[in-house]
Design a protein that fits this description.
The complex is a heterodimer of chains A (about 250) and B (about 200). Chain A is mainly beta and about 250 residues long. Chain A contains three helices and twelve strands. In chain A, β6 and β7 form a beta hairpin. Chain B has a single domain, classed as Aromatic compound dioxygenase (Protocatechuate 3,4-Dioxygenase, subunit A), CATH 2.60.130. The chains are: A mainly beta (about 250), B mainly beta (about 200).
Chain lengths: ~250, ~200
């Protein structure tokens, strides 16, 4: 499964700045209330268990895996219904370096706001030609691309009348197990973002803005699809010439 | 004014939501056949060196209810303490595994080999352990924790040694329930809340 790449000791991970993330407990997102740890996290410098991680090779990825418009039907004549969208961007680390050859996975609702999942019972219909998941591996410069349809907004049980903005879930590995990140991409101009208690778990507005993808005409293809740009930053490693002390020093 | 830092800020986390399986384990979501094979189905392949073990447990919320929608990932060294990709590592150990709480019972199972102790940067060893990352609806940022083993020598482990409340150390230690069988429950909140990590 893993490609044989030998990790080198490049220094410990930069500790996570938790103020830039949502807190575990948020009363307006009701499910977080019983699922949030109450005691402080145990902080410690990363060890090899956090600094190493799984590597996935191109052999894992099928040729249609990053094309959600046809990867369910497996038939170019049976595309998914919806606004055709290219989702693209780069994966970087906190030091500004591209993260190449790393796995990116996405999942989303269909154009009507319905997920293809055994537990989704929303009244919007399933699209017989849409599965709702995709995966790819970043290139040597950290770039990734998915062709998909714009997901619909949908209601969900939380407060009295709650709607999720249009969003695509995204999961990134990096090269260290403690770089693991799952987040959500929103779409420029969606008025529901400002009403969403899940988006609002991020209290720092400039951090929330970073989850809103930008309409990008430079990659939009005439008479075919619109493009949205979404860059992702993972944790980096602390790299100074004083990192690797000799044993016992 | 001071000089501008040129470092970037990590992208903020959002909950994985109730349908995390669609993107991570599509077969579990009821959608087989989209990918050639789901990722991380097995921590080990046949022939991996060491003791094959099975760890079962649940992810339990503050009310005592086992989550039915949690998704867990594990990462570990092989029986000799080498991580996949390191020189001399056991090629039959993938190290990485994905598993989900059962949709009806909330129970999860991880089948793997018991890892060896692993060296620390600057000397010393960590006791055998498996790193976990837990996501679910209502979890706003993935939770890191570890599984240690009650039948190993954990006395010099640097992480366990750092836990001030010694009564909480047990939350990270899997209980042996039979030959090669362990139990490890993860409590998100309440009495015996699991120690979660920031590493």
């Amino acid at each position: 499964m893993s490609d044989p790449i030998i990790p080198t000791d490049m220094g410990p991970l930069i500790p996570r700045n938790r103020a830039m993330h949502p807190a575990a407990y948020d009363i307006d997102y009701k499910t977080s209330v019983p699922r949030s740890p109450k005691w402080p996290l145990l902080s410690m410098e990363s060890t090899p268990s956090e600094e190493t991680g799984p590597r996935f090779g191109h052999s894992l990825i099928g040729p249609m895996d990053n094309n959600l418009i046809i990867n369910f039907s497996k038939d170019a004549n049976k595309p998914a219904i919806g606004e055709r969208v290219l989702m693209h961007g780069r994966v970087l680390d906190e030091n500004g370096r591209p993260v190449p050859n790393t796995l990116v996975e996405i999942w989303q609702a269909n154009a009507g706001g319905r997920y293809r999942h055994i537990k989704d019972t929303y009244l919007a219909p399933l699209d017989p030609n849409f599965g709702g998941c995709g995966r790819t591996i970043t290139d040597e410069n950290g770039y990734y691309e998915f062709l998909t349809i714009r997901p619909g907004a949908y209601p969900w049980p939380n407060r009295g009348n709650e709607w999720r903005p249009m969003h695509i879930h995204i999961s990134v590995f990096g090269h260290s197990f403690a770089q693991r990140l799952i987040t959500q991409m929103y779409f420029e101009g969606d008025p529901l973002i400002d009403h969403c208690p899940i988006a609002a778990t991020i209290k720092n507005r400039s951090q929330l803005d970073r989850l809103v993808s930008a309409l990008d005409f430079s990659k939009s293809r005439p008479l075919d699809f619109l493009a949205y740009k979404f860059d992702i930053v993972l944790r980096g490693r602390r790299q100074t010439m004083f990192e690797n002390k000799l044993e016992g020093m | 004014m001071v000089q501008k830092l040129d470092t970037l800020v990590e992208t903020p986390s959002q909950t994985a939501g109730p349908y995390v399986h669609i993107g991570t384990i599509p077969t579990f979501a009821g959608n087989p056949g989209i990918y050639p094979e789901d990722l991380g189905l097995r921590a080990i392949e046949d022939g991996a060196a060491g003791e094959v073990i099975t760890i079962t447990g649940s992810v339990i919320d503050g009310t005592g209810w086992a989550l039915r929608d949690a998704m867990i990932e594990s990462w570990q060294a092989d029986a000799a303490g080498k991580f996949p990709g390191q020189a001399g590592a056991d090629a039959k150990v993938n190290g990485f595994c994905r598993f989900a709480a059962h949709k009806d019972t909330g129970e999860f199972t991880l089948r793997t080999v018991k890892p060896g102790k692993t060296p620390m940067r600057g000397g010393g060893f960590q006791a055998p352990h498996i790193a976990l990352w837990i996501v679910a609806r209502g979890i706003n940022i993935g939770l890191q924790t570890r599984i240690y083993f009650e039948d190993e020598d954990n006395s010099a482990d640097p992480l366990l040694s750092r836990i001030e409340q010694r009564n909480r150390v047990d939350t990270l230690i899997a209980k042996k329930t039979g030959d090669g069988q362990y139990r490890f429950d993860i409590r998100l909140q309440g009495d015996d809340e699991t120690v979660f990590l920031d590493m």
